[in-house]
């Protein structure tokens, strides 16, 4: 995947795979690109990236829920 770059200097949240903690990790990056990234934990490899398209001052609150179950 070519588009797995991110600009944020921080992660605001993370969650490990509930069935095998060493398999996958999901992270939420902060200001700079606001995206959710799925990692292959043991190889520290990005598998997917979802851009959340959050405006600098959003007019409405958005709620996102990601489940690894």
Mean pLDDT: 79
**SSE class:** mainly beta
Shape: globular
Question: In order across it, which strands form the biggest sheet?
Answer: 1-2-3-4
Number of helices: 0
Instruction: Please give the share of residues in helix.
Output: under 10%
Strand fraction band?
Answer: 35-45%
Find the count of extended strands (DSSP E, 2+ residues). Answer: 4
Walk me through this protein's architecture.
The chain starts with 10 loop residues before the first strand and ends in an 18-residue tail after the last strand. It has strands at 11-16, 24-29, 35-40, 45-51. It contains no helices and 4 strands. It is mainly beta and 69 residues long. The mean pLDDT is 79. The protein has one domain. Strand 3 (35-40) and strand 4 form a beta hairpin. The protein is globular, with a radius of gyration of 13 Å. Helix content is 0%, strand content 36%.
Features:
69 residues; mainly beta; four-stranded antiparallel beta sheet; 36% strand
